[in-house]
């Protein structure tokens, strides 16, 4: 079992940068698939980025490709989402999710463990 705590959300101007962190408790962190999702006001939660246990494979939502980078430090039990050139449409609550039984997945149902979320607001 793992517990996830996100941090790093803030108010940022369009074009700026932000780094979100996801700190995980528990053992065998490198066996967990990690994903970042987001939920904007009035919208459903959506996939943003995914990284496998070793950090060797990643994937992104089309609208964030080239701007966002997902990474992880298994020694520190932490995952990151570096957000560059942010846009007002990136405004949302960002969630970190993890699962040890799914090898790869971008659906909410692929993940058993979720953090509480961190708010990102991008002003124009």
What's this entry about, in short?
This protein is 0% helix and 47% strand. It has 124 residues and is mostly beta strands.
How would you describe this protein?
The chain has 124 residues and is mainly beta. 0% of the residues lie in helices and 47% in strands. It has strands spanning 4-7, 11-13, 18-24, 33-39, 46-51, 58-60, 68-73, 78-83, 92-99, 113-114, 118-123. Strand 7 and strand 8 (78-83) form a beta hairpin.
Give the percentage of residues in beta strands: over 45%
Number of strands: 11
The ordered string of helix (H) and strand (E) elements is EEEEEEEEEEE
The stretches of 5 or more residues where confidence is low (pLDDT under 50) are none
What would the keywords be for this entry?
single chain; 124 residues; mainly beta; seven-stranded mixed β-sheet; four-stranded antiparallel β-sheet; 0% helix; globular
